[in-house]
Amino acid sequence: MNYNDGIEIVVADTSHEKYVDTILETITASAKKRGSGIATRTHEYLTTKMRERKAIIALSGPEKEFAGFCYIESWGNKEYVANSGLIVVEKFRNHHLATRIKEAAFTLSRLRWPNAKLFGLTSQAAVMKINTRLGYVPVTFEQLTHDDAFWAGCGTPEDPHCINCDVLARTGRKYCVCTAMLYDPADHVGEPLPVEFPPEVVEMARQFAEAEMKSKK
Ligand SMILES: CC(C)(COP(=O)(O)OP(=O)(O)OC[C@H]1O[C@@H](n2cnc3c(N)ncnc32)[C@H](O)[C@@H]1OP(=O)(O)O)[C@@H](O)C(=O)NCCC(=O)NCCS
Q1: Which superfamily does 7-216 belong to?
Q2: Looking at the DSSP assignment, which residues form a beta bridge with residue 183?
Q3: Tens digit of each residue's pLDDT (9 = 90 or more) over 104-136
Q4: By C-alpha distance, which of 77, 76, 82 is closest to 145?
Q5: What is the rounded distance in angstroms from the CA atom of residue 111 to the CA atom of residue 73?
Q6: What is the pTM of this model?
Q7: Which of these, 38, 88, 97, lies nearest to 68 by C-alpha position?
Q8: 115 CA to centre of ligand 1 in angstroms
Q9: Nearest residue CA, atom 26 of ligand 1?
Q10: What are the helix (H) ranges across the chain?
Q11: I need a surface site. Which of 63, 104, 138, 171 has the fewest CB within 10 A?
């Protein structure tokens, strides 16, 4: 779909590091307002994501005003990839911007880790809708990565990153407030990717995927 609203959605790089403070402030303010959980991230973490080209950023108009963000990471020996930290600035919501950001994150994930299962945790109806359209299905937590480093992102009751992490701890990571959703590439062989990236991004992702493949052998 062509939205024609002057919002560009790109794979972030070092030139976007200047937006990190704004992104973090937007995520924190939104989590406070909702009284709900979004796993908080540090400045360094998001900067690294941009340097590694594992983030999607949406910028509006000629002033390139920050409009939205999301990042990706692999877990469990690269068998799983999660899209996390999705945020759309309030005034840009309800214009399918999260849809466009998630489609870009999905495409980037599929290009970089073609064999990985993609997953996400969410309590948002909008995100469940978007994920479903991308081919994700709801699953139990048991079917997600068991990588401790991923779950550390939710925090612990002693050092919470999400306000619900006491539930996660109490149930031994079996249940929480979020719905788990999983995309298994084996169920979608030959399906086209939702976004066409510029050739330099496709090449960057291809080289990365090739290097990952070699390092796994
Ligand atoms: C959740 C969020 C990212 C959605 O952003 P958005 O750009 O408004 O979402 P979209 O416009 O792409 O909406 C996708 C679909 O969900 C629907 N939707 C949007 N907000 C919704 C809501 N609050 N409840 C139910 N459905 C909703 C839209 O109508 C759209 O459906 P359609 O395609 O059938 O028209 C945004 O509200 C946000 O940043 N919230 C705070 C942070 C957050 O919750 N992040 C997600 C963590 S997993």
Answers
A1: Gcn5-related N-acetyltransferase (GNAT) (3.40.630.30)
A2: 118
A3: 999 999 999 999 999 999 999 999 999 999 999
A4: 76
A5: 13
A6: 0.96
A7: 88
A8: 28
A9: 126
A10: 20-34, 43-51, 97-112, 125-134, 148-152, 165-170, 199-216
A11: 63
